[in-house]
Amino acid sequence: MSRALVTGATRGAGRAVAAALACAGYETCALGRDRLVLEELRSDFGVLPMAIDLTDREAVRVIVEGMKPDIVVHAALRWPTEKAFEKLQEADIDMALEVNLSAMFHLTRLVLPAMKEQGLGALFVVSPHPGESPSILERSVAGANDAFVDALQGELADVGITAQSIICEKPPFHSLVASILEHLETVGLAPLRYKADAHNHQGTRNVT
Question: What is the rounded distance in angstroms from the CA atom of residue 158 to the CA atom of residue 153?
Answer without folding.
Answer: 9
